[in-house]
Amino acid sequence: MTGPVEGGPDRSDLLTRLDIGAGEVKARVREFYSALNSYLAKTALDDYVQFFNWGYQPLPGRPDDWAGTLPAAMIDRDAVRLVLELIGPLAVDGRDILDVGCGRGGTLSTLASRFAPRKLVGVDLNPQSIAHCRGSQSDPRVQFFQGDAEDLAFGDASFDIVTNIESSNAYPAIDRFYREVNRVLRVGGAFAYTDLLRPDQFDHARRFLTANGFALDSDRDITANVLAARRQSADTQLRAFNAADGAQADATHDALMAYFLAPEGSAFFDSVQEGRFEYRILRFRKTSDCSEL
Ligand SMILES: C[S@@+](CC[C@H](N)C(=O)[O-])C[C@H]1O[C@@H](n2cnc3c(N)ncnc32)[C@H](O)[C@@H]1O
């Protein structure tokens, strides 16, 4: 894959890696997650896979934001841990929560089972993920909608917390998403944000959000914790996800799978380890509406 890609310094890494224009990203992302969902639907994994993220493992000598422990044999243990680290000290009980880029609903089912939120809403670009979420979740507090992070179909000041896990790296117009988060949050509400981005993309997020109605309460580099989770699980996941696709694999598919799972020794794993990307948890608090947004 060669050739220049449109976009300035805020261009997402997905664009660079796939060498596609911003206009194509959403279609590719939708296709990719549709393929994953179709594969899962044909396997016994379908009832169990609730997450599409890289996960988090606690490491000796590195501070965590969640003090509990999870059972060693728990499926999705690292992904659940990532959710709990993201939430950290935030008060969830009685709150209205929006998870943007909710995937197969694991974040909201974790919050529903471990806390007492009032309302949980998940949005994802991929209609199959949303269908899966609806079919697997009967909690009346939880709702799922197909939609775009850059154009949220909710009224102003509708939520107390917006969560966003490993999704924003695929948004071609990230500032539109940040503006939407400001709009749908109530003043005092929290934006709990975690992703794998280039350091300059995190700089941009801090700058843009603190200039536009947010205070930054917490900013933690969890790259080592996430790579520890990749080291332990990526190979197994790659084998499982590739099992049904081998014959039709193409360059785009392979790039997406490597991007998605990053096994140790892959170019993407190495580039994260070398510091070209960071996995961070940022918690912002909305301090004001931004009329100019
Ligand atoms: C790596 S998965 C993470 C899913 C989920 N947050 C989790 O932790 O399991 C990224 C998700 O972001 C979603 N996504 C990508 N672009 C999006 C957009 N513009 N609007 C909404 N969701 C989007 C994808 O469909 C996918 O479900």
Automatic annotation (TrEMBL):
Domain Methyltransferase type: 98-192
A biological-process GO annotation: methylation
Keyword Methyltransferase: yes
Keywords noted in UniProt: Methyltransferase, Transferase
InterPro entries found in the cross-reference section: Erg6_SMT_methyltransf, Methyltransf_11, SAM-dependent_MTases_sf
Keyword Protein biosynthesis part of the UniProt annotation: no
A Pfam cross-reference name: Methyltransf_11
Domain of life: Bacteria
Entry-linked Gene3D superfamilies: Vaccinia Virus protein VP39 (3.40.50.150)
A GO molecular-function descriptor: S-adenosylmethionine-dependent methyltransferase activity
PANTHER family from the UniProt entry: GERANYL DIPHOSPHATE 2-C-METHYLTRANSFERASE (PTHR44068:SF11), ZGC:194242 (PTHR44068)
Protein name per its UniProtKB record: Class I SAM-dependent methyltransferase
